[in-house]
Every structure is written in structure tokens, then in C-alpha cells.
Amino acid sequence: MATPEPAPLGMGGEAHWAMAVMWTFTAFVFLFLLLRIYTRVVCLSSYGLDDHIYVVAFVFLLIFIIFVQLSAQIGFGVQIEYLQHDMARVTKATLYECIGQGFAIVGMSIAKASLGVFLLRLVSLQWHRISIYVAMGVCVAAAIAQLLCFWLSCVPLAFVYDKRIPGGHCPIDTRPTSYILCVTTVLVDVYFSLLPWLVVWDLQMPRREKYTIALSLSLGLVAAAAGIKRTTTVEGLYTPNYLYDSVGLIVWSAVEMAVTLICIGIPVCMPLYRRVWRRLNNEQSSSGYQKQSGEQEGSSSVALQTIGGGYIGKDGQALPANMNKSKGSSHNKSFDVKLGIESGANQTTVGRGGSSDSVVNNSDEEILGEAYRHEARHKQLQGLSAHRGRQPSEGDGRHGQGIVVTKTYTINN
After folding, report:
1. If pLDDT is split at 50, 70 and 90, which confidence band does 377 have?
2. Where is the Rhodopsin domain (predicted)?
3. What letter would DSSP give residue 40?
4. For 49-72, how does the pLDDT look when each residue is reduced to its tens digit (9 = 90+)?
5. CA distance 289 to 55
6. Nearest C-alpha neighbor of 37 from the set 23, 18, 52
7. Which region, left, alpha or beta, applies to residue 340 given φ > 0 means left and ψ of -120 to 50 means alpha?
8. Where are the domains of the chain?
9. Which candidate, 359, 336, 375, places its Cα nearest to that of 200?
10. Peptide bond just before 392 cis, omega within 30 deg
11. Which of 161, 156, 154 has its CA nearest to residue 242?
């Protein structure tokens, strides 16, 4: 039987289609990353923790793809029989792939955490918040367990990627942690996809709009499907033909992670979609977006938090670190109104703006639309009425019109 010819350097075998798929999905994630940053910073002036986590998750995905690309240049996706003449090349390709897998394991949990933190901005019930934290915690714990088992399973450690080491062996079987991680990510994807239905179902809005919003926030089921497919390829990690048999696992890991990030990006960018749609139809936005510098004279502006955590003012210059520390402080302006002529008059101090959540949650309100704002306002009125012992009214001026009476007294000459 003739000996197979050695595979030349460069991508070969299954590497061509595998890298094409992985880079394509990464490009889509990068597009949504740019759209997300533009939406949060420019459209909403509301760059939050979930955005930072989203960026970190993309960085891990990118590093994962880069290391797999390095492995593909020297052997990833090629049958071992075409590489066995150069085991040093096999070892190096395996090392690059293993490093990439490490970033994929951690990046997967970060992507789920980004989705979880985003959902925390929407939910209000305590058990919803607790369940989200539990789901994120379980996912992170499973990822850490798999990462440690993967790299510490063999003695010596280098035997993980270099099977030429004499006496090397792997006493720890990483299959249990591998399957636990796969199942955990699938369950988290399913739960995070179904939870938005509970959030919007009780809102006072047309049924069709409920379906539209919930479906846009439930696209994580696609990531769950990718995770199920990835689970069926786990055994590729445990064959002598590792560089070839692990192609399916690597590709589906990248797809699941990328789809998770894409699914988060779609609903987050809904305010941007609305803005573009209105402009294409020559409609002026009546609410929900803050004008940029110079667009509206005399309008109050909220200090914009930059990605690094600082603030920039209306003129684009950095503000002092002690500015805007309290959420919504730029909205809380008070002034005195004197009623009457010269004689005794009632003087009332009023505040303009509203609650401190007006800055933090404007992204969530834009995603869920007017019904979400109406529901939140209704809950505020219910809380106020319960405190004062009367029924809430939509015409209550203290909450519905953005004017809050803070102090009233009589002045006698």
C-alpha cells in the first residue's frame, strides 16, 4: 500500500470550509458590535455593563478564530495520515487549536453573561433576577470546570497537545465536564429565549406587538440548536485523528458563540432600526431619542458616558470625574414658581425630569416601545396611590407630565 503524500503547508482538507464559516459568522458579530455601540452611544447615550461584556465576548471569539486559523495553516482539518511524517507540525497545530478552545470555553460563558445582564435591564420581578443570576453562575462554573479539566487532565501538562512525550498519560476523563458544559449552555440559551415572553406578556399592548417583541428577544433558540449539534461532536476530541475529527466541534462552538452574540445584537439595535425607518419614510421621531449636539436649541442634554467610563458634555469635551455620578442627576432640575400679585402668594418648588431610571433604562424602553413606558408609569402611579390611599390616575401630574412637586408654602407680606 502506497504511503500518502505529505500534506503541504497551508490550509487543506476540511479547513477551507471550516474557516470560511467561522470568519463569516465573526464578521456578522463584528457588524452587530458596531451597530450596538452606535445605538448605545449615539442614539441612546446609555452604554452599560452588558455592552462592556459584549465587547469582551467578541474579543474572545476573535482570539479563538485567530488561533484556529493558525492551526489551519499547518494541519487543522487534515487527516493524520498526511501529517504523521512531521509530528512536530502536528504538535504545533494541536497546541494552537487547544489554546483556541480555551478562549472558546471562556468566551461562551461570557456571551451568555452578556445576554443575562441585558435581560436584567428588562425584568422587574425578584425571582426573574435571581433565576438569571443562577443561570449565569451555573454557565460560568461549568466553563471553569471544563477549562481546568481540559488543561490539567494529562501528566505532564504538555501531553495534552504533544503525544510524543514518553510516559505521558491522561488520568482525568474530561468527557463528563465537556457534556455538562454543552448541556448547560443549551439550557441557558433556551431559558434566556423564553424569559422575554414572561416580561412582555402582561404589558397592555396588542397581541401582535407582543409576539414581535418576544420573538426578537427569543432568537437564542438558534444558538441552542447550534449547541445541540455541537454536543453530538464532542467525541471528536478523544480520537487519535484529533486535528481532523475535531473540526465539527470547533466549527459548531464558533457558530453557537457567534449566534448568541448576534441574537443579543438584534433587539439591542431596535432603536437604531426605528430611527433609520423613520428617516427613510421622512418621519420625525416624536420621542425616545435624545438629540445630538446642535440639533435642538435650548434642549437639555444628558452627559454621555464613554466606553472607558468617563463622561463627555454637549461640546464633546470631557467632564470632570465628579460630574453625573448620580444616575439621572442632569434631569433633576428644580426652580421656584411664584403665584399671585404682590400680596400673599403661594410659592411652589417643582422638579423637572423624573426618576433616576430615565437615563439607565431608556434603551430598554426603546426596545419594548411605548407599552413598556406606559406599564412602568402605571406601576409608579400604583405605588404612589398605595402610599396615599387613593386610586391611581393617568392624569396625575406628578408622574405623567415630568413635573414633580417637591415643596409648597405660603408667603405673607
Report:
1. low
2. 35-275
3. I
4. 888 999 999 999 999 999 999 999
5. 23
6. 52
7. left
8. 15-275, 328-411
9. 375
10. no
11. 161
Would you identify the CATH topology of the domain 15-275? Rhopdopsin 7-helix transmembrane proteins (1.20.1070)
pLDDT tens by residue, 281-309: 875 544 443 433 333 433 333 333 433 34
Higher pLDDT, 215 or 170: 170
Residue 373 confidence (pLDDT): 53
> Does residue 105 contact residue 143 with C-beta atoms inside 8 Å?
yes
Q: Which three cell numbers stand for residue 24?
A: 463569516
